[in-house]
Amino acid sequence: MILPIVAYGDPVLRKVGKEINADYPNLKELIANMKETMYNASGVGLAAPQIGKDIRLFIIDASPFAEDEDLDEADREALKNFNKVFINAKIIEEEGEEWPFNEGCLSIPNVREDVYRHEKVTFEYQDEDFNTYTETLTGLAARVFQHEYDHIEGVLFTDKLSSLKKRLIKKKLENISKGKIRADYRMRFPNLKK
């Protein structure tokens, strides 16, 4: 089932997600619905807060990036099969140079800005069967992970912009929260007058 994506301005996007366990109700169905929602919106990642759930769950399918000719072969190879579910993720270490990349977000349609992130991230997480793993990602895969991880920490990519950039996009963000935008997918707006 395709779920509405929560728009910028909704308080759920600012909550730190709660850890879940194998007893979380209808988890497999929720993950399937999140995947369907993400693909419907042409996204490469979707976090539970973006569908209104303040839990530590996000999904990534970065395989569309594997076709980008501007990326080096190692990055394309890493992204080709990068399709995972992350539950209760915790970053252990971020390292390396911070580098810019133009990011967007399904909760903030039609806004794209360069964001600086570390080139390497090591983290622990559980898969949908609650097996625990520790992994290290680099390059674009690390960036996609960090973007989705921020969502379960109540952080949006716009928080990482300079104060000047924030001022320049302020009106766009206000319009998103009021539902004064068009997206190619279902959205839920926090400030629509009933």
TrEMBL record:
Active site annotation, chain numbering: E148
Domain of life from the UniProt record: Bacteria
Binding site for Fe cation: C105, H147, H151
GO molecular function: peptide deformylase activity
Keywords carried by this UniProt record: Hydrolase, Iron, Metal-binding, Protein biosynthesis
InterPro entries: Peptide_deformylase, Peptide_deformylase_sf
Classification via Pfam families: Pep_deformylase (PF01327)
EC number(s) reported in the record: 3.5.1.88
Cofactor detail note: Binds 1 Fe(2+) ion.
Cofactor or coenzyme needed: Fe(2+)
Catalysis: reaction(s): N-terminal N-formyl-L-methionyl-[peptide] + H2O = N-terminal L-methionyl-[peptide] + formate
Role summary: Removes the formyl group from the N-terminal Met of newly synthesized proteins. Requires at least a dipeptide for an efficient rate of reaction. N-terminal L-methionine is a prerequisite for activity but the enzyme has broad specificity at other positions.
Family in the record: Belongs to the polypeptide deformylase family.
Protein name, entry field: Peptide deformylase
Organism for this UniProt entry: Tenacibaculum geojense
Lineage: Bacteria, Pseudomonadati, Bacteroidota, Flavobacteriia, Flavobacteriales
Gene: def
